[in-house]
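#struct-help
A.M.: can someone run this one for me? Single chain, 367 residues.
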Amino acid sequence: MKKIFSWILALTLLMGFSAAQLTVSAQTPADLDLSALSELDENKTDAGENYAYTWTVEEVEGETVRTLTLTLDGAQIGTLTLPCRSYGKLHIVIKTEGDSSIVAIAESYVFNYSYQWNTITFGGGGALAVGEAQIQGGGNDHIIAVAEGATVAITSDVLYALNFGASGSNGSTLNVDGSLSVNGTVLCGQAVIGEAGKLTCKRLVLAGHGAFDTDGFKDAFVLKEGGIFEALGDSDWIDDATGEQYAALSVTLNPDNAATVAEIINIPADYMPDGYALFLLAENFATIDDGDETPQDGVIFAATTLTLRAPAVDTPDEPNEPNDPIEPDEPIEPNPPTGVDGPLWMFALVMMSAVGIVCARKKVSAT
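D.P.: on it. Structure tokens below:
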């Protein structure tokens, strides 16, 4: 009996341990390390649970072009480590077919000096939630694009939640034709929001030079007709001297800038709130003034929250269709009288009297 009890106890503990392991596995998504592709000079296809990828290597006009296409379909990934390059070009495409999540996107350093990637494109019809996007790039002329129909949210609360290609003369461009939400400040060279695009972030700080830029600071920020830009404000960025919050949108300039502020911040004329205006701060910054106080160097006293979108259109109510004429009701026949009066009363009394006489005679006969 004791031996049986011991076996039951051991089995129970083993089952509990296995269940605990399953729970931990469910709570901790597995990492996906694709850095080994960096040294692979041949095509490859592979798949895992809820994801698949293809790696292609081809020669285009005498240059080696590598492309990673990663497709997610309900995937939950811990850290996604991207490949890098030592020469040629590297394009990365992340397609989200079913809602998926990635705890962190990280870069790899396979070579002594790794040029990371040339373009990263987010596409697909599913929603992708990314915790941290550690994708600074390294080198020049980087492009991150959110394709039309794609939905991407970067949820990290670090100061620069999306930061790439903004140092020195490095050019970089953020193209938003889908929906991109960033829980922090975005720092890059140039931002272009397309007709169906929406960019939401706390602040947008631009170095002024886009990828392959040849026209100086022109079009550092572009919002096309139909696009939407929302800067919610970032209370983590405060000027120490004044205690003022930094601008929601700013473009850093050089003294040799020859572009006008309308050429630097290129938006439809009626997309700014009433009382707001484009503002060129000396030779250092371009921003948007909210009209409360003149912006100062750094960029403070500018708009700290900002929404740029098409104005709401008041459409007149359509006239109601005239009602059909109401047909008169058919005349109602009067109900027959419910009471008894006149001759009917007399008939009723006669009948009651006759019944009474008959009953009385029967009673007398019985006695």
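A.M.: thanks! The helical segments are 2-27, 261-264, 343-366.
D.P.: also worth noting: The first strand starts at residue 32 and ends at 33.
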